[in-house]
Amino acid sequence: MDINNIVITEINDVVTVFQSKGKTHTAGLREHYGLSFALSGQITYEHNGRKYVSDTNSAIILPKGQSYKLHREKGGFFPLINFECTNFHPDTFTLIPLENTDYLKRCFDEMQKLFLSGRNRPMLMSKFYDIIGYLANTGNAESSPLSDAIAYIEKNLHLNITNSDLADECLMGEEHFRKLFKKEYGISPKQYITNIRIRKAKQMLSEGVLKINAISEKCGFSNPYHFCSFFKQKVGMSPSEYMNKNKIKII
Q: What is the pTM of this model?
């Protein structure tokens, strides 16, 4: 299940749960999506006849609206973030392999402080997107010859990014870069950048902090009129309509 397109609309809980060894629990229909990982211990989730092991080697996304069993095989501490989102609707568990949990733990600790304070919601959302981005790229982007291009796009989304710029970042010819990018991502670099710009615009519109003019500039559009027209063409509604429909509730 691809989490690259996920748009977070609400963060409901940021807690660390202690699970003691040896107990089995049947959970009813889950109220929110959840993201969890293990600092210690091991839980096996059972859903629709399949088992999913949550330990220090993996993070796990728990599906909204599903019931399941938890087998607590080793006692330990499990950070948990309950959330709502769009563009991501798994009906079963999603396991994501981890090399270690150090980075996740640092981001989670910062999220927990922000959540408990009830202030600085943009920073809270930003930290969660840091986690999502890390999980989306773990074991993938770091070993990819295109990783420098992806990092350049993320850092310079407000600029006019060309294939030549990206090829230079990867130290390869432009034609070879385009072919390799299409092979790895299934779309052209131009379409990838467009998708990232629309996704970032959706995120900022949902947060409801910046005005449309500022969002247009941060997402790399030449002017707000072009942004509004392009956004409506791709999403089916204007930025203002999207903001009104998807604006995140205040905690």
A: 0.56
